[in-house]
Amino acid sequence: MNTIPARLDHLVLATPDLAATVADFTRRTGVAPAPGGVHVGLGTRNFLVSLGGTSYLEIIGPDPEQPEPVGPRPFDVDAISRARTVTWAISPPDLDAAVATARSLGYDPGDVHPMSRRTPDGTLLAWRLTDGDTQHPSGLVPFLIDWGTARHPSASGLPSTPLLALAATAPDPDEIHRLLATLDTELPVTEGPVGLTFTVDTPLGPVTFE
């Protein structure tokens, strides 16, 4: 099995302390993530690193310059105590058709919602993604994303740490594999506590993040 899934869009590294995690990534890899933008009203902002091709890493955490959001911040950043890789996303050729197919095969990836953020130059970047309570709670089954006519983040001249491998552990790997198949994607999953790890190539050598 290929350790890098087809149509991988991005990985999500969530953190309770964005500045500290960005500094740690820079120290470990020798590559400084680029500011991505602000999720207005959601209380988060992100930094980005290219993983090669059209894939990238999103480091997301609370934005101290925003007021407390009305609801929970994305990716449960309010509930985590340390930085960790919480989930991943794929970009199917037709988002709505992929959702319909998955549902017909017994897995509901969630409803499709619009999202947006402001880039550092003030540009509004908009996209659509699946989100909802029906998504698998482990984060090991990817959410789906469609950038539409927006410029993809990987096309913004990001600093790069090419992705070498992506893998997961789960108490029931077969369950995860069955759900991945409904989305026409795959990921190496072995038995163990729920976890997602990735390894990138850097100027300091390969580095693995959990």
From TrEMBL:
<dbReference type="Pfam" id="PF13468">
    <property type="entry name" value="Glyoxalase_3"/>
</dbReference>
<dbReference type="InterPro" id="IPR025870">
    <property type="entry name" value="Glyoxalase-like_dom"/>
</dbReference>
<protein>
    <submittedName>
        <fullName>VOC family protein</fullName>
    </submittedName>
</protein>
<feature type="domain" description="Glyoxalase-like">
    <location>
        <begin position="8"/>
        <end position="183"/>
    </location>
</feature>
<dbReference type="InterPro" id="IPR029068">
    <property type="entry name" value="Glyas_Bleomycin-R_OHBP_Dase"/>
</dbReference>
